[in-house]
Amino acid sequence: MKRSLFIFYVLIIYALAQLTWWAYSLVKARPSSLGMIMSEGSVFIFVFLAGAYLLHRSFNRESRLQEQKKNFLLSVTHELKSHLASIKILLQTIQKRNLTKEQTLNFIQKSLMDIERLDDMVENMLLASKIDNESYTFPKDKFNLSVLVDSIVNRLQITKCEGTQQIIDAEIEPKISITGDKFALTSVVTNLIENAIKYSGPCETVAVKLFSKDDKVFLQVADHGIGIADQEKGRIFDKFYRVGSEDTRNTKGTGLGLYIVKEVLDKHQASIRVKDNRPVGSIFEVVFD
């Protein structure tokens, strides 16, 4: 990409130099045509520079996309190796050591949690691919959203705070039903909660609220994490985009979660917005009309 940009800039400079030389030669040969040459030359230069600017922007956009794809592959590889290594160590410990029943069950539970995280990641990748290929039809049926959100909260809930574990504080209004794609909306709720947990500090509470008001259904996921700068709020739903710079970012992720959230909600005529949580953190609010 850098080599292509270098060649592109060299060609631009060469073309401008040639244009200047021909203009000078024409003016020198026909001084009376100076006005016509200047006016036509100005139009040509304007069109030329406009095209060069658009090409330059396209090159930069493609360069950013390639960088994001590279980071995506590195992130996926890292997460796969991390979770698989954790599962391998836990199972080898069960196999080689004489553990109590309680210890064995604890190790099995941790292995299952790692498997669920891998399953979520694979589901995200498959759903994102189907959305891009427009091969997913989003079949819609009426279902109980309260039960869905409650089950996801219970699956992701941490009952005790140790190390980097968070606690999810849920306020779920019962018997809220909507019509939609249950599978895709499961990914929406899971991604929003996992995103809040990921960017929160150790033992910080993540608040999940589901309620109805004025014939609308509201889902709010709030955290007390690093927050999102105003200039980034418009880009967080872009594919592969992740908050922060590549040098300062240290959280795991593929950059697909919020992209999937936005795409799925658009298919359900639902809206999502992000706002600051006071004093720190972010609030993601989903509204189903």
CATH class of the largest domain: Alpha Beta
Give the mean pLDDT.
81
Task: Indicate the radius of gyration in whole angstroms.
Answer: 27 Å
Strand order of the largest sheet: 2-4-5-7-6
Beta-strand content estimate: 15-25%
Number of domains in the coordinates?
Answer: 2
* First and last CA, distance: 45 Å
In the predicted model, the low-confidence regions spanning at least 5 consecutive residues are: none
- CATH architecture type of the largest domain: 2-Layer Sandwich
Q: How many extended strands?
A: 7
Order of helices and strands: HHHEHEEHEEHEE
Q: What's the CATH superfamily of the largest domain, by name?
A: Histidine kinase-like ATPase, C-terminal domain
CATH domain topology of the largest domain: Heat Shock Protein 90
Q: What would the principal axes of the Cα set say about the shape?
A: elongated
Main pleated-sheet profile: 5 strands, mixed
General description of the model:
The protein is an alpha+beta fold and 289 residues long. It has 2 domains: 1-98; 141-288, Heat Shock Protein 90, CATH 3.30.565.10. It contains 6 helices and 7 strands; from the N terminus they run H-H-H-E-H-E-E-H-E-E-H-E-E. The chain has helices at residues 2-29, 34-96, 101-133, 145-156, 182-198, 257-267; strands at residues 141-144, 167-172, 177-180, 205-213, 216-222, 270-276, 282-288. The strands form 2 sheets. Strands 2-4-5-7-6 form a 5-stranded mixed β-sheet. Strands 1-3 form a two-stranded antiparallel sheet. Helix 2 packs antiparallel against helix 3 (101-133). The protein is elongated and about 100 Å long.
